[in-house]
């Protein structure tokens, strides 16, 4: 049975799920696996004193200049939305592991700097850019944030997870900062319409069960947190994460699946990212893979790095691209439901 796949990938800074691939890689992938239960509405941009915008984020509330002269971004979400609003960032930082632009990106940042996926951008190099504002996204701790904030007003992650920016919230904040709130609202509305269109065109999505996870030589894992960006993407489509998968998690964010429990992956739609494993080798790597219901139905999607990052570290541009990549899988889901 055909398993939909996408082309071999590139990609940017990862904030995907925390799984045991290698120690370094697992640390980098931890950023999409936190579910602290906070309310996305707590993170917002509001008018502050004249000429500034007040932005609430995971590290506090910060006033940033309206229409800043020089923007530095470590955040894919903010990098993409500033580009979409016609004001590309001046300096974009991305990890060496995902150093090339994704297929949805405009690639119009003024300068691109790579840094080690196991760390954060060099503070001195960031300071040399003399930014007016830094959109940092995930930062490991307050001390790291403070170092950047001494250089320029710094915005950590916005949204419900401290590990990855919420793409809707980032779009709203960027629009407020640039004085383009109406344009930003339209971008979000258009993206939301793309989700609505997918649901209308593929009625089997509504109420279907689904899961997002990773396949590696160390085993299988799926994300379980409700505010994990990958799960938010799925639930925005009307997909339900099964309670038995959530119950398998020990920390509320992810569940490691043993060979004896691969039947947990018998969801209507299964989205898996092979890391360190070739797609062609998945059937021999995962015991019972060919017997899983979504594999038999053609509703198991094996993602490359681009597709995995588009869903696990989503941006205003990547989510629409991702929906297009999943079109065949959605059609197969409809066929299986007949």
UniProtKB/TrEMBL annotation:
GO terms for biological process: iron coordination entity transport. GO terms for cellular component: outer membrane-bounded periplasmic space. Keywords: Signal, Transport. InterPro entries: ABC_transptr_periplasmic_BD (IPR002491), Bact_iron-sidero_bind (IPR051313). Residues 70-334 form the Fe/B12 periplasmic-binding domain. Belongs to the bacterial solute-binding protein 8 family. This is ABC-type Fe3+-hydroxamate transport system, periplasmic component. It comes from Corynebacterium variabile.
């Amino acid at each position: 049975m055909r398993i939909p796949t996408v082309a071999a990938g590139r990609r940017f800074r990862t904030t995907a799920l925390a799984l045991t691939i290698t120690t370094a890689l697992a640390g980098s992938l931890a950023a999409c696996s936190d579910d602290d239960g906070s309310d996305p509405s707590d993170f917002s941009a509001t008018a502050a004193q004249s000429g500034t915008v007040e932005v609430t984020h995971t590290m506090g509330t910060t006033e940033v200049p309206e229409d800043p002269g020089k923007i530095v971004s470590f955040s894919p979400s903010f990098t993409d939305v500033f580009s979409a609003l016609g004001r590309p960032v001046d300096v974009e930082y991305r990890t060496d592991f995902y150093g090339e632009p994704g297929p949805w990106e405009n690639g119009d940042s003024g300068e691109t700097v790579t840094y080690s996926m196991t760390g954060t951008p060099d503070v001195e190099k960031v300071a040399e850019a003399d930014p007016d504002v830094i959109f940092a996204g995930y930062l490991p701790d307050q001390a790291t944030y403070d170092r950047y904030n001494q250089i320029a007003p710094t915005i950590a992650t916005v949204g419900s997870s401290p590990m990855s920016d919420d793409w809707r919230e980032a779009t709203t904040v960027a629009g407020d900062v640039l004085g383009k709130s109406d344009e930003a609202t339209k971008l979000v509305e258009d993206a939301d319409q793309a989700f609505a269109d997918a649901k209308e065109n593929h009625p089997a999505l509504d109420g279907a069960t689904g899961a997002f996870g990773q396949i590696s030589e160390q085993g299988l894992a799926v994300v379980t947190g409700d505010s994990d960006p990958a799960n938010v993407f799925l639930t925005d489509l009307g997909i339900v994460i099964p309670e038995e998968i959530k119950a398998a998690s020990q920390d509320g964010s992810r569940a490691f699946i043993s060979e004896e429990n691969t039947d947990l992956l018998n969801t209507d739609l299964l989205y898996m990212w092979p890391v360190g494993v070739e797609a062609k080798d998945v059937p021999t790597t995962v015991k019972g893979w060919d017997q899983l219901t979504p594999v038999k139905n053609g509703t198991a999607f094996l993602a490359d790095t681009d597709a995995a990052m588009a869903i696990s570290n989503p941006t205003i541009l990547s989510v629409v691209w991702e929906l297009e990549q999943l079109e065949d899988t959605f059609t197969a889901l409809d066929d299986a439901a007949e």
